[in-house]
Amino acid sequence: MISKRFLSTRFRLQGSVSNHLRRLSTPATMISVDDLNPAVLKVEYAVRGELAIKAEEFRAVLQDPKTASSLPFTKVVSSNIGNPQQKGLDQPPITFLRQVAALTEYPELMKTAKDAFPPDVIERAQELLTEIGSIGAYSLSQGVLFIRKSVAKFIEERDGYPSNPDHIFLTGGASPGVSLLIQMLIKPVTPNNPDPSGILIPLPQYPLYTGTLAQFSGTALPYYLDESNGWSTSPAEIEAALAQAKEKGVIPKALVIINPGNPTGALLDESTQEELVRLCEKHRLVLMADEVYQINLHRPKAAPFTSFKKIVRRLNSPIPLVSYHSISKGVTGECGRRGGYFELANFPDELVALVYKMVSVGLCSPLSGQIGVDSMVRPPKPGSPSYDLWKKETDATQAALASRTHTMATRLNALPGVSCVDSPGALYLFPSLYLPEKAIEEAKKLGKKPDEMYAMDLLKETGICVIPGSGFGQRPGSDHYRLSCLCPGVEEYVGALERFHLSFMKKYE
Amino acid sequence: MISKRFLSTRFRLQGSVSNHLRRLSTPATMISVDDLNPAVLKVEYAVRGELAIKAEEFRAVLQDPKTASSLPFTKVVSSNIGNPQQKGLDQPPITFLRQVAALTEYPELMKTAKDAFPPDVIERAQELLTEIGSIGAYSLSQGVLFIRKSVAKFIEERDGYPSNPDHIFLTGGASPGVSLLIQMLIKPVTPNNPDPSGILIPLPQYPLYTGTLAQFSGTALPYYLDESNGWSTSPAEIEAALAQAKEKGVIPKALVIINPGNPTGALLDESTQEELVRLCEKHRLVLMADEVYQINLHRPKAAPFTSFKKIVRRLNSPIPLVSYHSISKGVTGECGRRGGYFELANFPDELVALVYKMVSVGLCSPLSGQIGVDSMVRPPKPGSPSYDLWKKETDATQAALASRTHTMATRLNALPGVSCVDSPGALYLFPSLYLPEKAIEEAKKLGKKPDEMYAMDLLKETGICVIPGSGFGQRPGSDHYRLSCLCPGVEEYVGALERFHLSFMKKYE
C-alpha cells in the first residue's frame, strides 16, 4: 500500500514538474511572433535600434565602478538622436519657457515665490491658466483654442498669409501627426482595392516615414536627394519615382518633404519649392511638409527658410498641405515635453472633421507640450523683463550650433575617405564614407552593411553613438552615417572621431 | 484696336475669375473622403462626438455677453468625459505631485524659493533630476528606467509577485498602449491571410476599443455584461461570442476586460477573474486588462480590486497579459499630463523587443507624465513632511466621489423609467432608460437613437453633457447614458437632471 505521504509528495513533484515544463513552454505555446500583424516585423527604426541599445549597455557598464574601467572610453556620447537637452550635451532649456511651465504646474508659487519670477512670466502663466484651468485636465482633442490662436498668429506673421486656428492641431511632437496622416491616406489592399497606396519619401530620410508606412502597410516611393549638389531635391527625381510607381501599379498619395532636411540639413530654395507645389498639383498629391527644423539655420542669409504654406498661398495653389512644427528642435529643444502642431491647408471641412475625430480617440496632446508650443510661438517681446535673457540664451544656442556644425564638417572633410556636405540647417551632418575594399569584405563576412560595421566599431572604441546611413536610406553601394551636432567640447569629440577614422582606414588599407 | 489697358484689365479679370473658381472647386478636386483609408470613416468615438462638440458651441455662446442669455442655463457641465480636473468640476490636483513637477520644470526654484517646498519634495525632485537630467530631453523610448523600477515595486507591493521593469512601458496615458497592442495583434486580411482577426470587447465599453479596432480593420467580438447582475462579466457570454466568431471565421486574438468597468463601474470578483484567465488559456487569448480605475473604489470592503497580474501569477497561468494603468483617473486625476504604463506578463523576450521597437517610432512618452507616474506609485510615506496633506487631499477626493456616486444613483433610481446600478467603482454611472413609445417614435422620425435624442435634449435644456448608451454599445432595444460622477454641487446637478427627466417623460407620455 502506498502511503498517503508518498502519494502527496509524488503529486507535488508531478505538479512541480508540469509547472516547470509549462513555464518553459510558455513563450512557444501561448504567443509568438507568428501571432502578430506581419507589418510589425517590417518596421525599422534605426535611430533607436541596435546601436542605441548597445550604447545604453555601455552606459550601464560605465556607471558600475566594478566594470567602468573595462571600456576604452569614459563616457557615451549619444550623437544618434537630435536630443538637445540630453545629459552631457550642451543646449540648456530656455528660462522663460521653464518658468511659465513651473507656474502652470503649481500656481501657488505666484503667491509663495513671487520674487522668483519676472512679472511677464507671471502674467503669461495667469493668462494661460485662465484659458486652460488646470493643466491636469484634458483639453479639447485638437488642443487649447487659445494656444491654437497663438500658433495661427505666429504662422501669419511668418508667412504674411492668414491661418485658421480650426485647421491647427496641437500634437505630442510632430511624429503623432505624421503617423495620423499616413494612416488616413494609406488605403489597405483589399479585393475591392487591389492597388497599394504609396507615399513619396526622400532618401536619405528620417525613418519615422518608412517606419510608419511599414506599420500601415503602405508603399514607400523613394526619391533620392542629390548629394553632389548639397543634398538638393530634384523634381525630376520625384517624377522618375512617380513613373516607377505607375509601372508597379502603386497609387501615389502624398509627397514628403523634410525642409530643413533630416539627416541632410539641406534647405530648399523658393523656386524648387514652387516646382514641388506644381508637381503636387499635377499628380494630385498631398504635400506633407516636415518643417520642424525651421529655425535651425546656420547661414540664414545664404540659405533662408521659407514655409510651404507661404509658397502654396502665394501661388494660390489648391494642393492639400500639411505642415509640421515641433518644440523638440530649434532653440527650444524640448523633446521630452512632447509638443508640436500641424496645420492643414486646402483640406475641405469634411476632412478636417475626420482628422478631429481621429485625434479624439487619442484624447489630447500633453498640456505641458501645448504650453511649450505657446512659449515657442510667443517668446518675450523686446522691452519685456524676460526678453534680454531669452535673447542671450537663444543667440548662444544658435551660434554654438552653427559654429560647431561648420567646424565638424570642415574637419570631417579633411579626413581621407570622407566627404561631408556642410549643412546650412537642422542639427545633423551626414558624411559620406569611401571605405577600403577590405573593410567592405569584412562587413560582408559579418553579415553587416559596411557603414553598420563602421558605426559599431566607432561606438565600441570611442563611446560615440552615430547611426549608419543604411538606417536613413542611401544610394546602393554608398556608405554614410548621421551624427548630431549637439556634442559639447567639439575639439575632444572631433579628435576622437578623427583618431578612430584614421585607425579604421589603416586597419583595412 | 483694343487698348493695352483694356487688355490688361481683361486678363486680370479672367485671372481673378479663374482663381475664384479654382478656390471654389478646391475641396472637390484635390482631396476628398474618397481618397482616404475607408477604415477612418468607420471609427466612432462618441465621448468626444456630436454632443461634446455641441457642448463646446454652447460654452462659446455663454462666454459671449451678447448671446449668453439666449440659453436656458448659465453653465455647461461636461459629464461626458472622466476629466476630474476640468474647470467647474471639483477634484483638485495633489499638491505633492504638482510641487515635484514644478521643481523638475525649473530646478532653480530649489535655490530661489526653497521655503515654498517641503524637504521631501525637494529630495524627490533632486532624485528624479539626477536620473533624468533635463525633463526637456527624450528618455528611453520605454520610459525612464528609474521610474519603471518604481512602478515594478508598486506592482510587487500591490500583488505580492515579482515585476520586471524591462516589461513595463511608460506611455502617454493608457490609450497609446491599448492602441499599440491592438495594432500589433490584428493581422490585416490579405489573400494569404483571409481570416479576419477579432478582439473580444465588453458591451457596454469605453469606445477606445472599438474605435481602435476600426482603425486597424480588426473585428470587434462583443460580449454583453449582465446589467441585471450589477453589470457582471459572464464567462458563458464570452464563450458564446467565441462560438459566434468561429462560425464567422474570425480568429479571436485577445480578450479585453475593463475592471473596474467603464462605463459600468462594476468590479470583478476573484473567482470570475480566475475563470476568465482559464478561458484565455483554453482559447489562447491575450488578456488585455484595463485597470485604470483600480483605486476608484467606493465600497472597497464589499467590492475590492484584485489585479489580473496577481490572479495570473497565483494560478501560475502562462497566458500573455497586458495590464494598463494611468495617472488620468484615481485620486491623481492628471489627464492633461498624459501618463500611464502597461506591464507585459508572459510575453517572450522576442515580443517584448518588438513592442520596444514599435514604441521607439513614437520616441517617448511625455516626461511630465512619466514623473506623474512616479508620484502616483511613490506617494509620500507616513511621517514624511508631505504625508498629512497628501492623505487629507486623497481621502477627500475618495470620499466625495463615493458619496456623490451613491447619492446620484439613489436619486436616479427614484425616477420613473430609470434604473441605475449603484456602481462600486470607477467614475461613472450608466443608468438605463425606459422611454415612452412616443419618444421612441419621435427619435425615429429625427433619424436618431432614442438615447441620443434624450441626451441632446438634456444638453439643450440643462447644459449637462452626457453620452448616450449607443456610444458605448448596449443590448438592442435598450437605452442608457453615461454620466461622470465628478460634478460638484450634487444637489443642483441632480435637481436639473430630475426636472429634465420628469418633463421629458411627461412630454412623451
UniProtKB/TrEMBL annotation, chains A, B:
Signal peptide limits: none
Cite the Aminotransferase class I/classII large domain residue spans from the record. Answer: 117-485
Per its UniProt record, the required cofactor names are: pyridoxal 5'-phosphate
Q: Any keyword Transferase?
A: yes
The transmembrane segments are none
Q: Which InterPro entries match?
A: ALAT1/2-like (IPR045088), Aminotransferase_I/II_large (IPR004839), PyrdxlP-dep_Trfase (IPR015424), PyrdxlP-dep_Trfase_major (IPR015421), PyrdxlP-dep_Trfase_small (IPR015422)
Summary of subunit composition and partner proteins:
Homodimer.
Protein name (record): Glutamate pyruvate transaminase
